[in-house]
Amino acid sequence: MDSFEGIIEFVAVAERRGFSAAAKQLGCSTSNVSRQIARLEERLGCALLSRTTRLVSLTDNGTVYYQQAKDLLIGLQQANEQVNQQQIKLTGTLRVSAAGGFAEHFIAPALVLFAQNHPELTIDMDFNSRMVNFVEDDLDFVIRYGELTDSNLIARKLVNRPLMAVATKAYLQQHGEPKHPSHLKSHSCIVSNNDVWKFDHENGPESIKVKGRWRSNNANSVLDACLRGLGIAYMPQSTFQSAVADGRLVPVLEPYWGKGTSSWIVYKNKRFMPLRARLAIDFLIQHFANWEERETTHPLP
């Protein structure tokens, strides 16, 4: 093909389902859009659009061509941004949702560093564990702990989060120390997001349903309840590292600790996202590339 003329107009019409809407998006006249697409169809030797008085739809050839043309435009835009990103001043608002101590103690400080590198960028960070709607909430990405269940979303692993079980010395002196996960059935357990705790040992994985006097989806409240002797807690290791290091908490069931799960960056499955979001995600992935769960001294979920 000798010319790329008409491709931008064609993609706009295909996505907006109309010539007037496409013209409004592109900031040109409807006649110009129609003329450019007619020339494109003439060069290709086939009809790309089926036109009626009320509806514009893609032909079979148009559907195939749209996918290729869309990829071409996205690739061109991303290539331009990649070449110029060192000179680009990121603007607008980066909207992020995150929850828990990991987000508070690590994600937020990392995004502060990112903001310092881009002084014209605004960051709106929502600390909320509820399920989010990317469209309604207008979010660029979220930070979540656990398995991804929505196949329409993309998840990139940020850090691994192996588990640790702990209690106070006073609790263990009063109630005894469990030597096997099954012993937890006779103990008061502090429940976070799940009352089924998963352990690993030489005979394979084992799941134990636990119960107790305190339940919360907030890591800091679970840590506080454990420190006050309400029972045994089981969460990612970094939640308890400081308290274990200074003797306030004692590890239990260490041979059976589970591998846990991971914290993820989750975003909508779309081919193109704002440069500010893409660069922020890349920044976080690089920032946490060598992060180890047991090396930190800050409480996390």
Q: If classified by CATH, what would the architecture of the largest domain be?
A: 3-Layer(aba) Sandwich
Strand order of the largest sheet: 4-3-5-14-6
Separate helix tally:
9
> Using only CA atoms, what is the Rg?
27 Å
Quantity of strands, as a count: 14
Uncertain segments are 295-301
Q: Which features does this protein show?
A:
301 residues, alpha/beta, Arc Repressor Mutant, subunit A, D-Maltodextrin-Binding Protein, domain 2, 3 domains, five-stranded mixed sheet, 14 strands, elongated, disordered C terminus, sequence-specific DNA binding
Write a brief caption for the model.
The chain is of the alpha/beta class and 301 residues long. Helices cover 36% and strands 23% of the residues.
What would your notes on this structure say?
This protein is an alpha/beta fold. It has 3 domains: 7-84, Orthogonal Bundle (Arc Repressor Mutant, subunit A), CATH 1.10.10; 93-161 and 262-295, 3-Layer(aba) Sandwich (D-Maltodextrin-Binding Protein, domain 2), CATH 3.40.190; 163-259, D-Maltodextrin-Binding Protein, domain 2 (3-Layer(aba) Sandwich), CATH 3.40.190. It is 36% helix and 23% strand. The protein has 9 helices and 14 strands. The protein has helices spanning 7-16, 19-26, 30-44, 60-84, 101-117, 169-175, 219-227, 241-245, 275-287, and strands spanning 49-51, 56-58, 93-98, 122-127, 141-145, 153-161, 163-167, 189-191, 196-201, 204-209, 214-215, 232-236, 250-252, 261-268. The strands form 4 sheets. It has a 5-stranded mixed sheet, with helices on one face. Strands 11-8-12-7-13 form a 5-stranded mixed sheet. Strands 1-2 form a two-stranded antiparallel sheet. Mean pLDDT is 85; it is low at 295-301.
